Amino acid sequence: MQALHTDKAPAAVGPYSQAIEANGFIFASGQLPIDPATNAFAEGGVKEQTRQSLTNARNVLASAGVDLSHVVKTTVFLSDMENFAAMNEVYAEFFKEPYPARSAFAVKALPKGALVEVECIAVK
């Protein structure tokens, strides 16, 4: 088991890793829409936040030598299901067929008031 880290995604701010690689799998922690260059949320709405969250996920996976085509499962957390269509539109820009399995659901709240958070599992 190996912890992964990149400066191209927000640093872990608690007792967790950006990702863990184990037995050929990469388990990436949920990515908030924080721009690591500014340490602030991407400006705009759910589309911009989804784009930043997925960019962060892509950068974390790159630290393991894989890209989004290696993702087998994602979980998308939304602050409001009304944002599903807009999130899905941006999500489709990042993933191609065969699409990873996915769960998407609304939660009561996300850290720092985010509109979206994305976690993923990839395989080498």
UniProtKB/TrEMBL annotation:
<dbReference type="GO" id="GO:0019239">
    <property type="term" value="F:deaminase activity"/>
</dbReference>
<dbReference type="GO" id="GO:0005829">
    <property type="term" value="C:cytosol"/>
</dbReference>
<protein>
    <submittedName>
        <fullName>2-iminobutanoate/2-iminopropanoate deaminase</fullName>
    </submittedName>
</protein>
<comment type="similarity">
    <text>Belongs to the RutC family.</text>
</comment>
<dbReference type="InterPro" id="IPR035959">
    <property type="entry name" value="RutC-like_sf"/>
</dbReference>
<dbReference type="InterPro" id="IPR006175">
    <property type="entry name" value="YjgF/YER057c/UK114"/>
</dbReference>
<dbReference type="InterPro" id="IPR006056">
    <property type="entry name" value="RidA"/>
</dbReference>
<dbReference type="Pfam" id="PF01042">
    <property type="entry name" value="Ribonuc_L-PSP"/>
</dbReference>
